[in-house]
Amino acid sequence: MLGIVRQKMLEQSLKKIPPAVSVLRSYSSAAKQMTIRDALNSALDEEMSADSKVFLMGEEVGEYQGAYKITKGLLDKYGPERVLDTPITEAGFTGVAVGAAYYGVKPVVEFMTFNFSMQAIDHIINSAAKTNYMSSGQISVPIVFRGPNGAAAGVGAQHSQCYAAWYASCPGLKVLAPYSSEDARGLLKAAIRDPDPVVFLENELLYGESFPVSDEVLDSSFCLPIGKAKIERKGKDVTIAAYSKMVGYALKAAETLEKDGIDAEVINLRSIRPLDRSMINASVRKTSRLVTVEEAFPQHGVGAEICASIVEESFAYLDAPVERIAGADVPMPYAANLERMAVPQVEDIVRAAKRTCYRSVS
Amino acid sequence: MALSHLAASASRSSSLLKPLSSALSLRRPISGDNSPLTVETSVPFTSHQCEAPSRSVETNPKELLTFFRDMALMRRMEIAADSLYKAKLIRGFCHLYDGQEAVAVGMEAAITKKDCIITAYRDHCTFVSRGGTLLEVFAELMGRQAGCSKGKGGSMHFYKKDSNFYGGHGIVGAQVPLGCGLAFAQKYSKDETVTFALYGDGAANQGQLFEALNISALWDLPAILVCENNHYGMGTAEWRAAKSPAYYKRGDYVPGLKVDGMDALAVKQACKFAKEHALKNGPIILEMDTYRYHGHSMSDPGSTYRTRDEISGVRQERDPIERIRKLILSHDLATEKELKDVEKEVRKEVDDAIAQAKESPMPEPSELFTNVYAKGLGVESFGADRKEVRATLP
Predict the structure, then answer these.
(1) CATH class for domain A7-25+228-356?
(2) Which of A24, A125, B31, B64 is such that its CA lies 20 to 30 A from the CA of A80?
(3) Which CATH fold would you assign to the domain A34-212?
(4) Is A209 tagged catalytic?
């Protein structure tokens, strides 16, 4: 008897707590929210639906539903002929995928992380990137290499490297790095439709993050141009250029800087190769100051290339030396405190921006 | 006079077959016909995990004469390339195929242009057997506009997509997974065609080969891996590089066939067998026992790791062109003089093509920046001094 009463009271009290989701729904704006994971999944789904030549290949992309669930549901929908689980042989399956692209079908190859792409890098560079040139346009290579890139959390030195600079140095490749869900959808669709080899650098820690997406973004024909950066936040005092996860950090830094009277312009690079030099230069000509932000190793990196571009094109406009914020120049340590020191933090970006403004950094 | 005209037009047409038969039909209607002829291969096939095909090969006079002409053309072409290299008209790498011609012609006789071929850097003759012209070969070797890759590829990067020839690859062994990928795409597209991925005894130990073979066997891809075993990987003899130089057996669970690669008819029979097998049962390995007279490349005299006696011995006992010549003569399909005339014609064709190639200009400077991408998106590219030389990629 008492048990039933207790149960009824429990039910009643549970009913009084509105479920979290519906509260959000009723209070949120009209724009929908979409995680990066869903953005990528829907992009793959739509492109596979639109073009029967598109197929997926990689470790665990099929029955496991994707190591990070990016390809969830696609095996059921498109079958094992179009969603292929490979053995753990990157050199072999990447070569197979590039050969298939030579013939004219359109592979989307998943690297479980880009650290493993090093096993296959000869095929990415020598077999994919250079072939259109060496064949004088006879053989184009419509392939996409995608997967998580850069640091995750606590995965150590061999699983944390960012490959943006390495791949972006190679003519013949296109290298994209989305930040938001809009980027993820638009750039992945563009990459799949592009006739050239595209390296598509995702970020594991962003997969679960939600971003607002408009109806235009949700439309199956939505596509973003390759080679164009986006101004995420307009400003006039200092330009902060970043890609992938660091865009979020740059935006947080901009909020902090605003309180100190510094109005930062945040550029989301979106495309590492081709690099949107004209947008970055136009921004720096407006603000006269630049901070580049990347998670990657600092030497010979994306920030170095951007700095060189500014020095070559807009030297007279600089009021302060260019600042680079990057990952520490060490293999990624495991201990949490050391790991924190090995990747840029928001305060690092704030400090660098203040230096360009000759403000005291205390 | 008329004959040389026909011979010259051969280098411009994409087919090597037509001019010969029409040339011969002017004088001898009997030879150059399709009446069936059965010839035994020099040695029986040795098989691994499969039943070897018969030693009796069906052929006909026209085919044998075509083999003779095509191989003579290739031989002459490679020897001419040697001279051009020594005259410094060809630069960089030049890997010559003389001695191995039977593999290229025998394979082509068993397949169609819808089947794919991919090979490594010793690709001049394979390109020609796929329909490439002598002009395209010499012009490419000399880095001229009339080259098959418009001068931008060089010796190791000949391609002919319209006959499904995918190169021409410079990284040892990489062409094998690429070839398995072509086979994947053929199966994906339901084309009922096969891919021949050629590699040498040097590449046969590459890990990626076994990775690709594993995938091909798992997914039943119509991939035929052809080991052109010329017994030396650059300067390293096979027994010094491979614990097991029985390359046709190295596929383990994948069947294999060992073939006398100096016998064009054996090659044809093996490739025909392999194509049927691959379409039904997935990958198979063919090991072609062949030999190259030149060193690994033009920088290699080829004599520091093998004896001159060995080279001349093979030339005397096993030369592929001599074998076909003997066959033609013993079956009375042509006279010795007629065959010598074919060799003279072929020599002239080669000389004419070289002269024409020398006339072809080097690429325009603007070509430095073309074909970096299929779709350049109007982005900028730079020369050595980016303030001096910039281009927009179309």
Answers:
(1) alpha beta
(2) A125
(3) Rossmann fold (3.40.50)
(4) no
